[in-house]
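Hey all, quick one. A colleague (J.T.) asked me to put the iron/sulfur cluster job into the tracker so the inputs and the structure tokens live in one place instead of scattered across chat threads. No bug as far as I know, just bookkeeping. Sequence used:
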Amino acid sequence: MNAKKVHIKSFGCQMNKLDSSLVSNALKDKGYELTDQSENADIVLINTCSVRDNAENRVVSHLGHLKYLKKTNPTLIVGVIGCMAQRLGVELLAHPAVDIVAGPAQIAQIPDMIEQTLSDHKRTVSITDKIRITGTADLSDDLNDFEFAYDSDENHIHNQAFVRIMRGCDKFCTYCIVPFVRGPEVSRSPQAIIDQIKKLADKGIKQITLLGQTVNSYVFVENEKTYTLADLLEMASEVDGIEWIRFITSHPKHFDESILRAMADLPKVCKYLHIPAQSGSDKILKAMNRGYTAAEYLDFIERAKQIVPDIAIAGDFIVGFPGETDEDFQATVELVKKAKYKNCFVFKYSPRPGTDTDKKLEDNIGEEIKKQRNTELLELQTKISEENNKKFLGQTVEVLVEGPSKKSHLNKSDNDGNPQLIGRTATDYIVVFNGPESLAGQFAKVTITKTAALTLFGQLS
Ligand code: SF4
């Protein structure tokens, strides 16, 4: 019998990409084939994101396409998994395309749910009821086993892998749905994490990225010892074969200096910090329940730069939060000028059903103003990045090569027919240069000859 074909489409953050990759590997292990196209598939899984309404709208439009596909392929099975599945649960079954609904804590059950639906053609839902009360801790063993069994180097960039160190979030930023769909913070045991890193290193992985919604909150108590992210960084540094260690994403509140010291002292830990500020206005930060003032955030950035020389810092901002006046936005502009980020990500506020902001505050900043503020902040950051990146001219940097550059305008070859490759420095700068494709997954030295806001260009040394 021909193997059933599965197509998985993933929206959203790195957590979702990791979940999709685990599910793909589990299904491959059970004899399914993966396909890039939903048109060829027997089973389509959409791993969803609920963080912005745009992401959910894209899922709804994708489901519309799948409903149409089901007309020509009535046996097609469609599963909605991830955050939107947890948020809407059984409501999703009202959509004529949907057969399976599984929340982020139920990823280990997906292969069985598919088997079941293939045999009885019944629609099925598995999510965590009352996730803030019941939590996901009792699923931890299943999830850990699933993670250990199906993590892989195959679905990631060459020789790079992501390792989840915790699930969920307890910060309750008022605009964010994550605590309600991913549940309370649950840290994995350091032993499970280190065993997984060792397994990945044995497969040739050179770089690992430790993942958590608020990764610096990692805490695990065992035999009366409390393990923190700083401890994990030290333990991961001792794994032979692992050369670079990253961690994302950090929250500015309660960021322990021991993590900065680990970054400064441990050569394998990359000097890169992604630490969202979200706003430079104290009024807006309070309304967001971020738990710090702009001054406290900037003090932290200064401290990080003192303790970890040459650290590269990336930020996130939300513009157009309810009640954000011109003065509030100017405070954000000032913060960006002072923080001098390597790069930053800017998002326009969109209300998320079920969050405090949506319940209590009117989305009263017009779309035009949101767009203007978004553009202004990005233009400012572009100037800062252009200026900052000039320091690399003439320098030789080490990169971990990801593979051929995907942007078509960059896909040129040099006189030797070498394609244009893309790599990243330990501090997360993107470097484009010509070189043999065999360098993918290897470290290389590149001398920088040209710089732009988002990219450094150079030649192999
Ligand atoms: S820290 Fe705030 S923004 Fe980040 S996941 Fe938690 S609640 Fe959401």
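Adding what we noticed when we looked at it: Residues 367-389 form the longest helix (23 residues). The pocket of iron/sulfur cluster is lined by residues 169, 171-173, 176, 178-179, 213-214, 251 (CB under 6 Å).
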